[in-house]
Amino acid sequence: MPPVDLILHSGRVVTLDKTSSVASAVAVHDGRIVAVGSERDVLALAGPGTRRVDLAGGSVLPGINDSHLHLQFFGLSRPPFSLDVSDRAVSSMADIRRLVAERTAATPAGTWIRGWGWTAGALADVAARGVAVNRTDLDDITPDHPVLLTHFSAHAALANSRALRAAGVTSATPDPEGGHIVREPATGEPTGELHESAVALVADHVAEPSAGERRAATLAGIRQLNVLGVTSVTDPIVTPTMLRDYVALRRSQALTARITTLLNWTWPSVTTTTRVLEEAMRYVGSSSGLGDDWLRIGGCKLFADGIPVLRSAWMSQPYDDGCCGSLVTEGKTDSARLETLNAAITLLHRSRFQVQVHATGDRACDAVVDAFHAAMDADPWPDARHVLIHANLPSERAIRLMAEHGLVANTNALIKWQASDGLRGLVDEHTWHRNMPIRTLLDNGVVVADSSDAPVTFPDWRQAVETLVLRETRGSGTVSGPEERITREQALRAWTAGPAYQEGREHEKGTISPGKLADLTVLAEDILAVDDHELHSVTPVLTVVGGTMVHEA
Questions:
Q1: Which segments of the chain belong to CATH 2.30.40.10?
Q2: Which residues make Cβ contacts (< 8 Å) with residue 430, sequence separation at least 6?
């Protein structure tokens, strides 16, 4: 063997391989891991040009893989591309008004103002008045600028009156399929709050960022992820325009994280019709797996329902307001929408696309799993690895079917940590605790890949790992579902080996083993020794992708 390029030594190399082995050194050559073992044996491979990194008792993990992260949206959701109106930056509508006023003062009249991340529960003045957000919260400071502020979940938005006029949304505008225009009870006038596919009524009129802005935002997002130790992502909504951007960045060799894409043709509408899918399948000319180690097509993304906090997740038991939510697929009735969901999944399955479907309510989760089961029984494809996204409340029967068919649960501990306190009371106590039954999924043999869903959350995998282990909520610290806690190793696998399996790439990444891609995340601390409550604060100091250091603290 020729002298190696890089050796990391004098620490804990947490391989997460099948035997859960822990080594003290790892060697890299030509973008691949070539040796894992004792410090003495691995250092013997060094030559004059080998870079040696002393871990000083720190630890090395397989490269962190955020398996459901909206990469370009994450970049565009952050300043300077968009106003940050998340609870990391604001605590009141007054704060939002100040940010919007500052932006309008520096922006030509008629230009759209975008923001991302608000949630009503985090706005103290809105909560105190007991009235929902409204276009009038913005109108007096934005007479000449249309404004669209996206909810932290991306399943809702707040538009000012100028934006509603630009989109032609009035009291006479009907709710679109799979969406809801919130209206004033007395007059029927839109309040400015839009849910699910209704967001597209206004969002479709927003001027698109230029290609240069989009690509710059994407690279800025990747740089932030590299700092956190992230080496791979799956972007779950990639439009044709976005795919062209990613291809351009790949061709220019600008990527410092690997990207798996899920194709989508209707965003920002969450409703994808079978007509659109049939047209796409005639012309897309591809299937899952096209690409290389840096950029590849993983599959397609569909939505089954909404989210619990908006009471739009499809549930068997009613929310506090008596409704049960619904599917957001095409159709006027539950049965029609269910038929559309089944047809869409079957079409993509037969076209040999991995299908990943957003499902949060218990009825939605079971409906998606049943559709996967039917499609795979009728047309066997052992490597499909279809994915239940969010997997909040699958039944025990559905979980058994998932294991039987090799389906993946893509969960979101960060959303559970961030949103659980606000969800309490909207659903019954048993459902609140059972939400994201990750231990049950693992115990039944289902592969779990956890993820951030950024920009829905800030993509900090460390907090996710802590939440998987402790299941404590952010605000109150209440333990939600103690019986669903998992071990530290299981949590780390959900951010490394599980995502690799979801991609069908477990032979290339996800563990630290000779022959695999040299994607590594280095921490200053021993990840196996820190206290559970300190997992969120471990320190990424070095990120290696393909043997190249893309971040060094």
A1: 6-63+516-552
A2: none
HEC readout, 420-481 = HHHHECCECHHHHHHCCCHHHHHHCCCEEEECCCCCCCCCCHHHHHHHHHHCECCCCCCECC
Determine if the peptide bond prior to 455 is cis (ω within 30°): yes
Interacting residues of 524 by C-beta distance below 8 A, sequence separation 6+: 56, 58, 538, 539, 541
Q: What is the pLDDT of residue 153?
A: 86
The model's pTM: 0.92
Distance from C-alpha of 17 to C-alpha of 33, rounded to nearest angstrom? 14
Q: What are phi and psi of 9, to 5 degrees?
A: -145, 170
In angstroms, the CA 238 to CA 218 distance is 12
Nearest to 516 by CA among 24, 19, 52, 30: 30
Per-residue pLDDT of 251-298, as tens digits, reads 999 999 999 999 999 998 999 999 999 999 999 999 999 999 999 999
Q: Write down the mean pLDDT value for the chain.
A: 96
Topology given in CATH for the domain delimited by 6-63+516-552: Urease, subunit C; domain 1 (2.30.40)
Query: For residue 208, is pLDDT > 90?
Result: no
Look at residue 519 and tell me whether its pLDDT is greater than 80. Answer: yes
With beta carbons less than 8 A apart as the criterion, state whether 306 and 196 touch: yes
